[in-house]
Design a protein that fits this description.
single chain, alpha/beta, seven-stranded mixed beta sheet
């Protein structure tokens, strides 16, 4: 599995003559969580991307940074890696998975493969979102890449052999000294088994990162690796968002550094955080492992600068340091612009297609803490789809409830023409729809768990809407509305006893009554660790994205009128008094 050797020029003049020890300087560059960002463009806003921090996005910027580093260090002394989540996340990636799919006979080459090939990536770890569009799309993308997709802990269900390349080795020739062998081990997220259960169940398993690193790192050392780099689609917090459904930790990169000897540096992904440099001491060796996570969406590039010295007949890593470079400091690489402008324009035209007209402006600005019609649109579409699917079945008589989360704080559907872009900004994930059967008591537990999202706020305390939510750092996508019921969330009460006045059809909820919950596949498979839903009986599911269902619903109606979908299901209270 070794890659072809690379001929390296001297890193400096002191490669070893006379009494001076031989030295070599290697720079490993890394990106992560690109999520389909080729250009500094916001497809939802139909404009150049901008934020208050002045960030810029896109592989076209990364290409410029990479070339700068290669000129500084010598291209032959550099390695370029990614830590996963490449082919999902923007309308660009959706378009080439679903509208003009790369899997069609004679279909296009994925824009992300084109860009990364042109930039010259050496390897990329698999991210969990690589699996969202199915194994056929992932395998086709893998074929189109000039570099390996690595996943040592993505194994065939039977026999348990690696389903993807576990590692790659690149040999760097050193002027005046022996070659340096650099191994890159790829690790991905065990949560794939939950989040994309419908795609991978019975086909692939995903053991823990620590377990598989402990298997592979010694092998790489025994194969003569002088440097071992791990590219891990896994954060550093040591926590999980899928509860106790798997015995593995989701954000395990720091655990790997701490527990598995023989690793020099870890490129971290998945958490969408900016970590310039994190030093973790290995418990067995006492050696420091350097971790770094560049900000997502190609906003940052990590640099690991690794100094080696030839001592006692072999290369030894003398020091590792990590730093970040910012994409907002450079312009787009003209070669990437030339290569992918046509694909970009196709996607812009697609997302600007008009599918209906809105009678009034709908916004998600206050949707985290007030029952907003724009979120009711999602639940109404899901309710209708499930009711239609269950018609004529034994479950047709059960009342249908639906969950939805306020994914975006900036989603806005303006009065007048409604485009695919407007609707996509409301539902930014490629989730699909599942129908599960829950009892009234289970629904009550579900709502209580969801209500933990709110910060406990005494009845006499001032209310700052910006400080009411994200208790315990719970993200917005792990707070759920549930339609079809009426209930209050009393935020003056402690978590676990906040759901008040819970009624169905005007009467107190019967804990024994059965309901069908229309729920996205992430939640249905255990994402967010909501109670009961993952183990509940599944009565229907489909592969069409909820985003597409919303567009179809609006297209069929022709008019987006809140009278057709808005409902007042819940409100925040404090000791029974409404907050708003």
């Amino acid at each position: 599995m070794a890659a072809p050797a690379a001929q390296a020029a001297p890193a400096d003049a002191a490669h070893g003559r006379g009494k001076h020890p031989k030295r070599y300087a290697l720079t490993v560059m890394g990106t992560t969580d690109l999520h389909g960002h080729v250009f500094n463009w916001d497809y939802y806003a139909d404009a150049e991307y901008s934020d208050t921090a002045g960030n810029a996005q896109g592989l076209a910027r990364i290409a410029t940074l990479v070339e700068q580093v290669r000129r500084e260090k010598g291209r032959e002394n550099t390695l370029l890696l990614d830590a996963g989540d490449i082919i999902q996340g923007t309308p660009l990636t959706y378009y080439y998975a679903k509208v003009d799919p790369i899997t069609d006979r004679g279909g296009p080459v994925h824009p992300m493969a084109q860009a990364m090939n042109a930039i010259g990536y050496d390897a990329a770890a698999l991210g969990n979102h690589e699996f969202n569009y199915g194994l056929e799309t992932l395998r086709k993308f893998e074929q189109q890449c000039d570099f390996p997709l690595l996943g040592a802990n993505a194994v065939d269900a039977t026999p348990r052999r690696p389903a993807f390349r576990p590692y790659m080795i690149k040999t760097f020739r050193v002027h005046g000294g022996p070659p340096v062998k650099v191994a890159v081990l790829g690790l991905t997220n065990p949560g794939i088994a939950i989040w994309d259960k419908a795609i991978v169940q019975g086909k692939l398993d995903f053991p823990g990162l620590e377990e598989q690193a402990a298997v592979w790192v010694p092998k790489l050392r025994s194969m003569g690796a002088d440097v071992v780099i791990v590219s891990a689609h896994s954060g550093t917090s040591g926590t999980s968002s899928y509860g106790d459904q798997l015995p593995y930790v989701e954000d395990a990169a720091a655990n790997v550094a701490r527990q598995v000897p023989g690793i020099d540096a870890i490129l971290v992904g998945h958490a969408h955080l900016e970590i310039p440099e994190l030093k973790v001491v290995n418990e067995q060796t006492g050696r420091t492992v350097v971790l770094s996570e560049p900000l997502c969406f190609a906003e940052r590039l990590t640099l690991f600068d690794i100094e080696l010295v030839f001592d006692k007949g072999r290369w030894q890593v003398e020091s590792v340091s990590a730093s970040l470079r910012n994409s907002n400091e450079v312009e787009d690489d003209p070669e990437i612009v030339r290569l992918l402008t046509d694909e970009h324009k196709q996607v812009v035209a697609y997302v600007n297609q008009v599918v209906g007209r809105a009678t009034e402006t709908l916004t998600a600005a206050e949707a985290r803490y007030t029952d907003a019609p724009i979120i009711d649109l999602i639940t109404k579409v899901q309710e209708d789809a499930v009711k239609e699917a269950l018609a004529g079945t034994e479950y047709a008589s059960l009342p249908v409830l639906a969950q939805a989360s306020p994914f975006s704080r900036t989603a806005r559907i303006p009065a007048g023409d409604v485009t695919i872009r407007d609707l996509s900004s409301l539902y930014v994930y490629d989730n699909t729809l599942v129908a599960k059967v829950l009892t009234g008591a289970q629904v009550r537990d579900y709502l209580e768990y969801s209500a933990e999202y709110f910060v406990q706020t005494p009845a006499d305390a001032p209310v700052d809407p910006e400080k009411l939510t994200n208790a315990g750092d719970r993200p917005d996508y792990n707070y759920d509305y549930v339609s079809g019921l009426q209930y209050d969330i009393d935020i003056a009460q402690p978590a676990g006893s906040r759901i008040k006045n819970l009624t169905f059809d005007g009467a107190p909820l019967d804990d024994t009554q059965q309901f069908v919950l229309a729920v996205n596949n992430y939640r249905a498979n255990g994402g967010g660790a909501f109670p009961h839903v993952a183990s509940a009986k599944e009565v229907w599911s489909e592969s069409t994205e909820i985003r597409t269902r919303i567009a179809e619903w609006v297209t069929a109606k022709g008019e987006l009128n809140p009278a057709d979908f808005a409902s007042t299901d819940w409100k925040l209270t404090r000791d029974g008094t409404p907050v708003f």
